[in-house]
Amino acid sequence: MHAFESIQLFGSGMAQLAFPTEMSSSVLAPYLFVSAAMFCIGLIGFLTRKNMIIMFLCTELMFQAAGLALIAFGRQHLGSDGQTFVIFVLCVAAAEAAMALALVVLLFRHRESLSASAWKELNG
Amino acid sequence: MMTASLMNQLMASVAVLSPEGATGGTTGHGGAASSHLAGLVEHVGVGPKWVLLIVFLPLLGFVLNAVYAAIGNKSKLPAWTTIVLLAAAFIATLSMFLSYEGTPYTVYAFEWFNLSYGDKSFIANFSFYIDKLTILWMLFVTGLATLIALYASEYMSHDIGAGYCRFFSAFGLFVFSMSCLVMGDNMLMLYLGWEGVGLCSYLLIGYFYKKPSAVAAAKKAFIVNRIGDLGLALGIYLTFVHFGTVQYAELFNNETLHQYINAAAVGDFSAIPGEAQWIALLLMVGAFGKSAQFPLYVWLPDAMEGPTPVSALIHAATMVTAGVYLIARFYPLFLVSEHALPIVAWIGTITAFLAATIGMAQFDIKRIMAYSTVSQLGYMFAGLGLLSTTGAAFHVVTHAFFKALLFLACGAVMHGFAGQLDLRKLSGVAWMKGWGIVGVTMLIGCMNLAGLPYITSGFYSKDMILAEAFVTPGYQMIGWILVITAIMTAYYTFRVFFRVFLGEKHCEPGEDFHGDDKADFHPHAPGWAINTVLIVLATCSVLAISLAYIDKAENHGWVGSMIVDSTASYHSPYSESLAAAHGGGEPHAVAGPVGFAAPGKVLGMDPHGGMIVVSGLGAILGVLIAAYFHGPKGWQGLFLGGRTEAGKCRMDAVAARMGPIPRLAENKWYVDEFYAMVFVTPLRILAHVFHWIDKLLLDGLVNLFGFLPRVFAWIIRPSQSGVLQGYAVSMAGGLVILLFVVIVVVVRAGGGA
Q1: Which residue stretches of chain A have pLDDT < 50?
Q2: Among A90, B138, B290, B620, which lies 20 to 30 A Cα-Cα from B87?
Q3: Minimal-distance CA residue of chain B relative to A59
């Protein structure tokens, strides 16, 4: 028990030594503005464009917006969770990009078109 | 073991001298009628295992034939397998008969039911009870089955292949079931066999399953038999409830049963609980169904749709006598029922008469034989009801031979003339080339069925039943009805013979050509297998006369000597004493449900002597009537007949003058139509009512639960538009709403704080 506590104390001491101090919310705000802007651009693009590749790019944009916000918050709280999470998101996004592009290719082969409205008959 | 039967006789005589001491003080009513039964089943031994061969060899035949069918055999192998196995079973039965030592024994195969609850236990093993009644039945069952399998090997040869295998497979299964029925040592085995023979009957009646009438007949036989089987099942159930056992050895040794028998012997039926009396009535219903007695006889004539060997074996010689066996086996139970035996006697008589009237008006020779079977079974039941189990069993044996012979001869005609069975379209068959043997054997069969005096075995067995009817007080009426029926029997039997087998040669083929061309049709005479079987059966029918003379003085013939040492025998305490009083004359006296009787007289003569005159003359009279109305001109018609053409005879003019009666009789008195109106139609209407209840109410309820989600889905389906942006907008909209809600809640919470 003692040993564990001492390691924790040592760890926090090291963190205070290794990392700069917490960011204030005024420093945080620009990051969040950029993140929100990126997300809105992605969302609007996704809703308004019909080209499936563009729509896919827009989803990627929204992903990265979320990632940016995560890193910013992580930096504010001096934790490594945000960064770790973003690494995961990047991996998943890479895999998903491979799948999604393959799907888009297949869908294109079926309809000779990249328009999402070509698949309108998949309704209820 | 001859000492055992000697002991029985000694005990019987002791019983007369000192009634109280005979059954160990269990008798409360003075008589000791049950002492014979007690002495018989007191020491039931254990028999040799090879007896099991009789049962399991036919089952092996069933299995092998099924295998042949599976591997697509296309030869006569199934027939020969069946014949060899059945012959082996017959030889085993013969050695069982020869090695029988006077005491009944059981042979254990394996455990079947062994349940116990509380102080009660229900035991029914797969084991067999051998006494002389069993042996008597098994002798003719296996013997006839072997012969008829040989006959069928030729008769069914048009169907070689899967049908041939199927036929002999069911044939083997039938003999197995019949063996279980007859040899089983408990009522459950009997029931197993009973249902088994019913199944085989169904399978074989419906053998030509592409023919709608055959399918209908098979279903009819099965369903009508269900009614009887319900009675049998309830009877078995009640036996267990009342006596606590279904095993023969325990049941017939049951002290309560012995007390009942002694009470019944002195006519004191009030001492017997109603429950015990109902057993016999229920078993009787089962017997009526299987043996085609009056209310339930309608299936048997229709069963003629099956191949003729089946008609001969199942629907004439063996299966239909299962009812007679049932009553004979459980005779002690019937004795203790006040009404069962009189009902059996009367139903038998009514059936005999009714079926004979129908038989007289039919034109299909196989159906005539079917009605004569029903009629002769009526004789057997009358015999059972009148306490003449010997007469009934003797008639079963002789009838088995001559009726199988008659059917097989008719089958040879049917086979040779492409399915022609109408007696108006055939004539002079006996004179055609190669048909001599069929003609002669048919004549022997007809003489037996008609009961011509002294030269036929049918005469002796029928005489025994008739004589019994005349000596039982209050039952002379039955006697006279049966005598009239005997005259009618002789008439319709020889009607067939005179028309089909004698006279000008003439034939019109039937519809069943087996690939022959109708234009160049020529009858094909039976081959060696059919002829051999006919000759053997005719010989047996004639030789059966000797059975009447073996052991005649003691037991009314050989069959009597078989019956007397079985549960079917009935020893009244009065029979011995009266026999002694009459100076050792034939013990005729009976007491029990049908009343008391002393050796009576018929027309001032000894009953048997009198019956020889009455029934013998009656039979001859019937033949002469048939000769006059149907016989061909010249010596063949005994110089009485005047028929010159196949289709015309003197009877036509008579029938025309009798108004609607011949037509009514030809249509079986519209009994089938009556049943259809009274039972079938109401049930059909009820079935339709329930069908609609099922369809509307139950199906409606179930469908409603299926319909509701469908409505719900119909409402929300438009939300799935198929436009990807639509989904995205709703997602974004949802997010907005969610954010709005969160912000409002947070703001309000913050505001509250």
Answers
A1: 1, 3, 5-7, 9, 13, 15
A2: B290
A3: B728
Test mutation, A39, A41, A47, chain B, max B CBs within 10 A: A47
Strand ranges (DSSP E) for B56-102? none
Tell me how far apart the alpha carbons of residues A13 and B659 are, in angstroms, rounded to a whole number. 129
Give the dihedral of Cα atoms B506, B507, B508, B514; nearest 10 deg: -160
In A, which residues are within 8 Å of B724 by CB distance? 55, 116-117, 119
Question: Any chain B CB within 8 A of the CB of A46?
Answer: yes
pLDDT digits (tens, 9 = 90+) for B163-208: 999 999 999 999 999 999 999 999 999 999 999 999 999 999 999 9
DSSP 8-state secondary structure symbol assigned to residue B304: G
Q: Which residues numbered 89-118 in A keep a CB inside 8 Å of some CB on B?
A: 116-117
Q: How far, in Å, CA of B424 to CA of B647, rounded? A: 4
Strands B426-427 vs B506-507: parallel, antiparallel or unpaired: antiparallel
Residues in a beta bridge with B107: B128
**What count of CB pairs under 8 Å joins A to B?**
30
Q: Out of A43, A50, A123, whose CB is closest to B722?
A: A123
CB-based burial of residue B753 (10 Å sphere; 0-12 exposed, 13-18 middle, 19+ buried)? exposed
| Contact check, Cβ <8 Å, A43/B721 | no
Which chain A residue has its CA at the smallest distance from B715's CA? A124
Query: In the numeric block, which tokens belong to residue A63?
Result: 């992903």
Of B307, B167, B286, B175, the C-alpha closest to B231 is B286
Q: Does A119 touch chain B (CB under 8 A)?
A: yes
Nearest CA to B201 among B221, B220, B215, B187?
B221
Contact B719 A124 (CB under 8 A): yes
Pairing of strands B105-117, B120-130: antiparallel
Whole-angstrom distance, CA of residue B82 vs CA of residue B88: 10
Q: Which long-range contacts (CB under 8 A, 24 or more apart) does B627-630 make?
A: B627/B494, B627/B498, B629/B495, B629/B654, B630/B494, B630/B495, B630/B498, B630/B499
Rounded distance, CA A8 to CA A14, Å? 10
Check: CB of residue B502 under 8 Å from CB of residue B443: no
Pair B124, B180: CB distance under 8 Å = no
Handedness of CA A104, A110, A112, A118 (dihedral sign): negative
Give the whole-angstrom CA distance, residue A95 versus residue A97. Answer: 5
For residues B544 and B551, the answer to whether their CB atoms sit within 8 Å is: no
Assigned token pair, B695: 């369809």
pLDDT recorded at residue A79: 82
Q: How many CB atoms lie within 10 A of CB B262?
A: 27
Q: Which amino acid is at A95?
A: A
| Alpha-carbon gap, residue B108 to B131, rounded angstroms | 15
**Are B723 and A122 an interchain contact pair (Cβ–Cβ within 8 Å)?**
no
Using the beta-carbon criterion (under 8 Å), do A55 and B724 form an inter-chain contact?
Answer: yes
CA-CA-CA-CA torsion for B636, B640, B644, B646, nearest 10 degrees?
A: -70
In chain B, % of residues over pLDDT 90: 51
Closest CA–CA distance from residue A118 to any residue of chain B (Å): 9
Q: Tell me: the pLDDT tens digits for B126-136?
A: 999 999 999 99
As a three-state string, the secondary structure of B140-196 is HHHHHHHHHHHHHHHHCHHHCCHHHHHHHHHHHHHHHHHHHHHHECEHHHHHHHHHH
Q: How far is CA B105 from CA B102, B139, B248, B698, in A?
A: 9, 17, 11, 56
- Whether residues B732 and A50 touch (CB distance < 8 A) is answered with no
Of B717, B722, B729, the CB nearest to A122: B722
Contacts with A124 from chain B: Cβ below 8 Å: 717-722
